Structures are given as structure tokens and as C-alpha cells.
Amino acid sequence: MTQAVSAGASAGEGLLDGLHTEIAGYYSQKVLTHGPTPLGVDWPCVPTQELRFVQLLRLCDFAHPFALNDLGCGYGALLAYLARRHRRSRIDYLGIDLSPEMLVEASQLWAKRSETGFVLGHTSPRVADYSVASGIFNVKLHQPTEIWTRFIETTLTNMHATSRRGFAVNFLAPLAAGVEGKTELYRCPASVWRQFCEEQLAARVDVLENYGLREYTLLVRSA
Which H/E stretch holds residue 71? Predict the structure, then answer.
């Protein structure tokens, strides 16, 4: 059966409370408007949503049972993908999200799935083998870049601390020179966050690019 608990805030993260509240409100409104669909997590369609999952899960060894944290889990779309593509794998899954409305949908959809839980919060309350986060850094809303950068640094550090073997995240890639994008979207060269993970987290990083979306995925393995 699914379970819902509240994940406590880590020390020193009080400055990000307002940002967390804004993110929660944004995605709560999306899922209330569109329901448990890709549009409900501000993404256009299932095929490209699952293309992201393919890249993130390259981190995982499906030959053996493992525990997985899914940060920004939304309504649990990753579980649907796992059920189709990795149905024989034993995965102890925990979804974490800032939006209570998202977790209501997730808990209803996956109430009968064993080894599945959901928590409300911005970081995992447990250490798992792997952690993944799909698209959580892309929509910075109206937050200053400095605050958004702090949010990313804190989140990556927390994911590293709660992942025994490693974690995977994705980012939007910069647009071509002269092309203007939406100001509410965050784009950054892969070298910036690769360097952060290597130098600040002492991790080994692989960058996945050119898989059909204007973005990249970082596979961050514990040294």
C-alpha cells in the first residue's frame, strides 16, 4: 500500500521556503486543471516525457533489486513507465513532491502497487540506491537566477546525500545564439553543473545529449 508522510526541512534551507511554496502552487494548479496527465506536470506529451525517463534510468542496474527516490514525482508517471518497461524488476519506490494535490493523484493511482510510497517535501527522508528528478529545474517562474541557482545547488547536494550509488537529473540546454526563449525557463550549459557535481560532490559525471530534446541529462555516480 502507498503511504504519505511529511519530509522535514534540512537545516539552512529556510531561505528557499518561499520558492518551494511558489513551485508547489504552480504545479498544484497544473494538476487541478489538467489532471494526472503530462500537461498536469507542464509537459506536452507522453512520448517525450518517457524519453526523459529513458535517459535518467540509464543510471540504474535493473539486474538486481534496488531502492529509488523520485524527486518531483508528480502523479507518478515514472511508475507507469517502469510497469511497462521493467515489470520484472523489483524496485522499492519513494516519490517526493512539493504539491499536495500531486500526491493525492499519485496515491490514488498507485494505491495497489507494493513497495511504493509518497512523501510531501523537497528532499527524501531516506537514503536509496538511486535518485532521479525529471524536469524540476526547468521552470524558474519569476525567481531571480541567484535564488534558483541556490535551489539547484541545495537540491543536488541533498540528492547526493540520499543516494548510495548515484542520481540523475536533467536541464534545458541553452538556445542558439540570437534566439530568445521564455524568461521563466532556466537554461544553462552542461559544463556548469557537471563541474559542480565533480568538484563539490566529488562525484563521477556522465553527460547525455543529442537524444531528441533540447536538453541534457547528468548521470552522477558516487565516487
Answer: strand 66-71
Q: Whole-angstrom Cα distance, residue 193 to residue 137?
A: 12
Tally of CA atoms within 13 A in the half-sphere of 197 that contains its CB: 28
Cα torsion through 162, 167, 170, 171, rounded to 10: 60
For 72-222, where are the E strands, in sequence order? 91-97, 116-120, 128-133, 163-172, 203-208, 215-222
- pTM equals 0.91
β-sheet bridge partners, residue 208: 217
Q: Any idea which of 43-47, 146-150, 207-211 has the lowest mean pLDDT?
A: 43-47
DSSP assignment of 32-50 equals: HHH-SSGGGGT-S-HHHHH
Report which of 7, 5, 20, 8 is spatially closest to residue 150, judged by C-alpha positions.
Answer: 20
The full set of domains in the chain, from first to last, is 4-222 (3.40.50.150)
